[in-house]
User: Fold this.
Amino acid sequence: MRFKSCKDFPQSEDKHYHIMIVWFKSPRALECTSIYASGSTSSGIYPIWLKERFQFTYVYCDMELVSTKKGWTTIQRRMNGDINFERGWDDYVKGFGNPSSEYWLGLENIYRLSRQTAYSTNTLGAINTKLPEVGFDLEDWDGMKVFVQYKNFILNSKATNYLLDVNFFNGAFWSFFSRVPINGEFSTPDRDNDETDRHCAKDYKSGWWFRYCYDSNLNGPYPKYTQKISWQNIYWFGWDDFNKNKTALRFSTMKLYHGRVKP
Ligand SMILES: [Ca+2]
Assistant:
């Protein structure tokens, strides 16, 4: 049945009241760690509440044990080349793709997500921000894979072109991946914010934190299985030392871990 106008819609005070109660009682998870803690232990797609945007967004939660922790919030995934990642600034700010396969959560969503766990911690009212950790799953066409983790993920606002500061390799020993290959302002094929005379995002056909062009490019063009790893496809510094065959990467994810979050 269709209603001609708002005043035709049957309203009851009680129903309205009931809906409001359900809304405010609904748990609104801020990230995947607390979804896991609340008993949803299967990996899959979940809604998370972005407080500062006052809206839900869907993400893929990785609930498997990763680096002694469970409940990682996936913000980027490449797996089959179905989604075109050669896109402009607006798409990278907004997000694109599908959390069930390949996707980019969007810079504005990632920025808000990374700030969700700020909370007041002492009686003087000082605000301590618990920074999320960031992890990267990488796998090439030979089946070689690693998980690389860094301690702090600090993403700044649009006013800084989403300047990223990732620091402290979180591995027990030195590896090919000890050096942090992801930092700086975000660039896209239509927006050059890198620190070189070139326009790296345009040359390498993706949106990414290209500081000096050559460190990483997980949003680069999806490679065929015969290809070698290069800056022209999905790139991560150190991979060509890790696998001497220099095989191209066929899979990547980028995910945040927020730890146990206070309400
Ligand atoms: Ca430049």
Notes: The longest strand covers residues 145-155. Residues 192, 194, 196, 198-199 surround calcium ion (CB under 6 Å). The longest helix spans residues 13-25.
